[in-house]
Structures are given as structure tokens and as C-alpha cells.
Amino acid sequence: MASHGFSVTFREQLLERLRSERFDLLVIGGGITGAGIALDAVSRGLKVALVEREDFASGTSSRSTKLIHGGLRYLKQLEFGLVKEVGSERAVVHNLAPHLVIPEKMLLPLSEGKSLGYLLTSFGLKLYDWLADVKKSDQRRMLTRAQTLRYEPLLKKDFIKGGAIYAEYRTDDARLTLEVMKTAFQRGAICVSYVAARDFLYEDKRVAGARIVDELTKRELDLRAPAIVNATGPWVDDLRTADASLSGKRLHLTKGVHIVVPRERLPVQQAIYFDVSDGRMIFAIPRGRVSYIGTTDTNYDGDKDHVVATVEDAEYLIRAVNDTFPSVQLSLNDVESSWAGLRPLIHEEGKSESELSRKDEIFVSPSGLISIAGGKLTGYRKMAERVVDLVIHRHFGDQVFRECFTNRIRLAGNTFGSYDDVVAYRDAVARQLAGAGLEEYVAEYLVGNYGQQTDLIIRHFLQMDAAMNKDLALILSELWFCFHHEMIVTLLDFFLRRTGLVNFDIMRVERWKSEVAEELGRYAGWSAERKKSEIDALDTYIAEARLTKRIASI
Ligand code: FAD
Q1: What are the CA-CA distances from residue 119 to residues 80, 113, 163, 288 (Å)?
Q2: Nearest atom in ligand 1 to 67's CA
Q3: Which of 18, 27, 28, 61 maximizes ligand 1 atoms within 8 Å of its Cβ, making it the mutation to test the pocket?
């Protein structure tokens, strides 16, 4: 169940293997796209290496709206193929990790003069269900005005003329990426974080490997592989440039921002997808003790390595909320956290940022470098299948490999037969934790994050000093698990991408960051200086996420 060897403790051995072994495929980039490709390829029998220059999922794959969704708005753009593929994938990905990809009903209010008409919406959602082959009990239901307002009494009553409820799934993008990565690793892929690909190595003008750099020690080594996939999301064109093959289509980056407010400040009863005055549509999603709101969609040509929400971004989302839920009246001071990410879209002449297609596209350079860009979290598995088909066709055409079967490979943490099993397991965990003095919501958090790996965390928790504060004992047990099984290197890896606490429970981070730094420092052998720099980096991130400095300066 656990991922033995997927720990920074084994990093030197993993780097040595990257240096000394010959691989069939090198995947560059450890977001969902790279992770999906590594899993698909290794499960078909290829020998795979994957390098990620920071933490896994540190790019766009931890900065999305965190929905496994069909993309209702793509219907508006008449992208039927995309809706069909990602729509159908929702149920597949849910089955691969039912604890992590959880059904979520979405309310779509229809208001006077803004959204599509009632009949068009009814038809559109029916088409959406049909394209995605949604089972009958989950199909869309149209609502009267009164029903819509019962679902969400906070809505501005004057203009509501009806609504609809339809099925989507929510997830945690960083954890989904990590579980796909761990599953690839368990099957034999060598996946290492904080290792960047710098330059390509060529044989007869064909890419034959890459010079890679261990970002922790700055040591360089050469990695050999006949097939190389560039899955670096917003950085795809940087590697195409390094390969001297950036021509024709290129990326168009747009920034999307989410803000997080305390649940009591935006107590929506379920996820809502509503339209705002400029014609865009925005989500408000309740999650544990907070609600989050997003997203913006603006052209971006700033620093790709440092993407943050601005006060203007936050004000736009706050205005949208206050217009739609007039009794709420959020202000900048309510923003508890935020995140911003870049959509790596394909540029199309004459189209505005929100009109650009979300379809993925594969580029093959004259040297044989395969680059993949665009796409969605939801469609990662099908994208991976297409890329690995191409890799096999181009490089190993005369050998026999298995057909793609990732639709049947359960992700790490999933030993459940169905979603009902998840619910039963969660209840059992809640009972066990109640006995240890912890509240019920903790079980939901743990099982949602770690699935059945929660057993290991609880076992560790029960062995902790009984006199220790229970919440501290729990967070240190999570840390123990993440250090030994989830390749954390920094404090932020733990607090942001393994636990999601910086996004969704920032008070818990503030409360325990020193104790966690102390314990992680003990595991990893940090000096006092390193410990301080880790806490400083976390504090800087938190200040940016809370917009602290930027609000103070206006
Ligand atoms: P990334 O996650 O960015 O991964 C690329 C990785 O490559 C990075 O980790 C980077 O560090 C690494 N890298 C870069 N250069 C190098 C190098 N030289 N060497 C090694 N590694 C390198 N999709 C959905 O399905 N549902 C949603 O709700 C949703 N919401 C979204 C909301 C927003 C605001 C945005 C921006 C996107 C959203 N998406 C959503 C789309 C989805 O998040 C992306 O399509 C997906 O995460 C892209 O993953 P990726 O692996 O291609 O890129």
C-alpha cells in the first residue's frame, strides 16, 4: 500500500540510477501530465525516468480549481469532442481514486439577462450528460425559481429565474498528481523531484538524453534515453527553445486566481457555478472550514516562476461574489489565502484568453523531442495514452508492448471497491479518532487526502506521547508519513502540496509550523540555518497568499 523508497532518504540511490541506467523514456515535468505519462508508459513495459525541477505538482497542477469536470463552458465553445472525452473521464478517474475524486453536485443559477436561457441550458446540460454518458441518477435536474432559492438562499433574489443541478467531482489536484506519481514509482518508474533538465544530448541530430541538474546540490549528470517527452506545462516552450525547435504553434499563458474565505463569510450550501457581469463564469466551492472562489482568466507575460494573486484579481472575485450573494459583502480583509496558476494554452490568432481552446496538442520536433501542452487535469489519462502510443510508435515500433490499461490501475491509497466503501472506511476512522479525542471532520480530511494510507498515519498517531496536544500529534503523524512515503523535501512541500493546509486551513499551519519544522529538520538532518530559511520561505509564501503586504500598501 505505501510507497517504499519514495522518500528523500533514498534520493542518492535514485540519482545514481538516473546516472548509470539506460531508460527507454525520459519524462520532463512532474505535474499531472508528466505523472500520467510515466504511469502509462511504465505500466506498458517501458523503462521510465521522470525529473521535476521543483516539488511534484508545484506548477499548474497544484493551482487549479480542483474539479474533475467536463467543462460545461466548452459546450458554449462547441468543443463537443473535448466535452465528451473529459466528461467521460470523470467517472473513470473517480473509480481510480474514489476517496480523492468525490462526487459534487453543482448548482447553476439562471438569472435574467445574463446566462443562457432556461431551455437552452436544459438542452445543453442534457447534451453534456449524454456526451459524458452520465448515469441516470446523476443526470441534470432543472429547477424552478423557488427550488433554486431553496438550494441557495444567499443568491440575489431579484433576477433569479430558475436553475439546474448537475453532477461533477471535486479533488485535490496536487494529491491526485502525487498519487499518480507514487503509483508509477511503485510500478518501477524512477521519479525524482528537485532535478531539472537543462540541455539536451544529441546523437546524429536526434535527442538521445538530457543533462540534468540536482537542484539541491547543483551536481550535473547525463541521462540517456532514446525517447524524451517534454511535459513542462507553462515551460514547454522554454524546452522547445533549448531544442531549437520553437516554431509554428506556441503557448499562450493565461493566469487564473482563486481566493479563500472563512466558510462563515460565504456559507454557500454546495458548489455553485455562476455568471458575472463581464460574461465570465465563476465557481464558489465550500470545502471544510472555508469556501473558495475562482477563477480569473487574464493574459500573462510575467515571471512564470513566481505567479501570485494581485489585489485587483481578488477585488474582481470579491465583486463577483458580492453581486451574486448581496447579503455576503466580502472585503479584502476576508481573504484568508489565495493561489494563482498559469494555463498553458495553445495560441490562436485573434482569440481572446477565455476563447482559447483547452484541448491538448502534441508537437514533435525535427530532433524527435515530443512536447505536450494544453489539456486539463481531468483528461490526464487520455492525454498520457496518446503520448505513449506515439512514443511506442516512433521509437519501439517493432517491439510488442501492452495496450494502455490505466483505466484499471487503482491509484495509491485506493484499496476500496466503491465509493460506499470509502464512506464506510471514513466512518470507521471517525469512530477510532473520536476515541482518541479528535473531531469527526478530521476523518474526512485524512481519508480525502490519503485514502487507506490513513491507517499508517493513525497507527503512528496512536503511538505518540499521550500527553501531547492531539492536533500536534496528528500533524506530526502526517509529517512522518509524508517524509517516509511522499518525497517531501521542504516545509512548503508538506504544508502546501501534501496536506493542502496553506490553502484550506492556514491557521493550523501558523499554529504548528515551528514544531513541524523542528521534526522535519530532525528527520532530514537540517542545520539551524536551514530550518530558519525553511520557515522564512513558508512565511513569505503565506504573506503572499494572504495578500498581506499588497493590502497594506493600498
Ligand atoms: P504543470 O502542472 O505546470 O507541470 C509542469 C511541471 O514541469 C512543473 O511542475 C514544472 O516545475 C516542471 N518543469 C518545468 N521546467 C522543467 C525542467 N526544465 N526540468 C524539469 N521539470 C520542469 N483542469 C481541470 O481538469 N479541472 C480544473 O478545475 C481546472 N482548473 C484550472 C484552473 C486554473 C486557474 C488553471 C490555471 C488551470 C486549471 N485546469 C483545470 C487545468 C489543469 O490544471 C492543467 O491543465 C494541468 O494542471 C497542467 O498540468 P501539466 O502537468 O501539464 O503542467
Answers
A1: 19, 14, 11, 34
A2: 28
A3: 61
List the grid coordinates of 499: 496536506
Q: How far is the CA of 112 from the centre of ligand 1 (A)?
A: 36
Picking from 210-224, 244-258, 516-530, which range would have the lowest pLDDT averaged per residue?
244-258
- On whether the CB atoms of residues 374 and 71 are closer than 8 A, the answer is no
Give pLDDT tens digits for 147-189: 999 999 999 988 899 999 999 999 999 999 999 999 999 999 9
Nearest CA to ligand 1 atom 37: 64
Burial of 552 (0-12, 13-18, 19+ CB in 10 A): exposed
From the CA of 66, give the closest atom in ligand 1: 28
Tell me the C-alpha distance between 42 and 4, whole Å: 17
Distance 374 CA to ligand 1 centre (A): 9
With 0-12 CB in 10 A as exposed, 13-18 as middle and 19+ as buried, what is 242? Answer: middle
Torsion of the alpha carbons at 64, 312, 355 and 80, rounded to the nearest 10: 30
Q: What is the pTM of this model?
A: 0.97
Domains by residue range for the chain, with CATH: 3-60+174-250+359-408 (3.50.50.60), 101-170+251-346 (3.30.9.10), 419-552 (1.10.8.870)
Flag whether pLDDT at 500 surpasses 80: yes
DSSP secondary structure string, 138-173?
Answer: GS-EEE-HHHHHHH-TTS-TTTEEEEEEEEEEE--H
pLDDT band at 277 (very low <50, low <70, confident <90, very high): confident
Has residue 551 got a pLDDT over 80?
no
**Start-to-end C-alpha separation, the chain:** 50
Average pLDDT estimate for 545-554: 76
